[in-house]
Amino acid sequence: VKLTESGGGSVQTGGSLRLSCGVSGYIGRRYCMAWFRQAPGKEREEVVRMDIYDVARYADFVAGRFTFSRASAENAFYLQMNDLKPEDTAIYYCAALEYLGYCPSTPDVWGQGTQVTVFS
User: Fold this and answer.
1) N or C end: fewer C-beta atoms under 10 angstroms in the chain?
2) DSSP state string for 94-109
3) For 60, phi and psi rounded to 5 degrees?
4) SS3 for 65?
5) If phi over 0 gives left and psi between -120 and 50 gives alpha, with beta otherwise, what is residue 82?
6) pLDDT digits (tens, 9 = 90+) for 28-51
7) Count H helices, E strands: the chain?
8) Do residues 64 and 81 make contact, with C-beta atoms less than 8 angstroms apart?
């Protein structure tokens, strides 16, 4: 399984971006999917995770601004980000976590990351 992110860029405060995570290799419903981010000088943090039943759990800082979705062909995942703030500036990573009857805390597969910059 290989993950490839795209869709990052620079946007003004209040703007929107849609990140994509392309999946190479069949994952079916074997993996939970997640987005993480890492801002300069900070530790990587989880933004959202989705289990194999498409139930998404968002970090508190998302506050209803982001939406995680799965493509119908299940070969891509999307993170729609609205009302972006400067503190959302980070490298965003797509990740896959093998489902073990639950979604584990540590991803098994990482993408290379895509930069999101929000300026005021």
Assistant:
1) C
2) EEEEE-SSS--SS-SE
3) -60, -35
4) coil
5) beta
6) 889 999 999 999 999 999 999 999
7) 0, 11
8) no
- Given a cut of 90, whether residue 68 has pLDDT beyond it is yes
Give the neighbor-by-neighbor strand order of the sheet with 76-81: 2-6, 17-24, 76-81, 66-70
Beta-carbon contacts of 110 under 8 Å, excluding residues fewer than 6 positions away, are 3, 93, 94, 95
State the maximum Cα–Cα separation within the chain, in Å, rounded to a whole number. 43
Q: In sequence order, which residues have a C-beta less than 8 Å from that of residue 31 and are 6 or more positions away?
A: 1, 52, 96, 97, 98, 99, 108, 109
pLDDT at 60: 97
Predicted local confidence at residue 78, as pLDDT: 96
C-alpha 95/C-alpha 107 separation (Å) is 6
User: Which residues are registered as beta bridge partners of 79?
Assistant: 19, 68
Six-digit token string for 14 = 């209040």
Q: How many residues does the chain have?
A: 120
The H-or-E segment that residue 119 falls in is: strand 114-119
Q: How far is residue 110 CA from its own chain's centroid?
A: 11
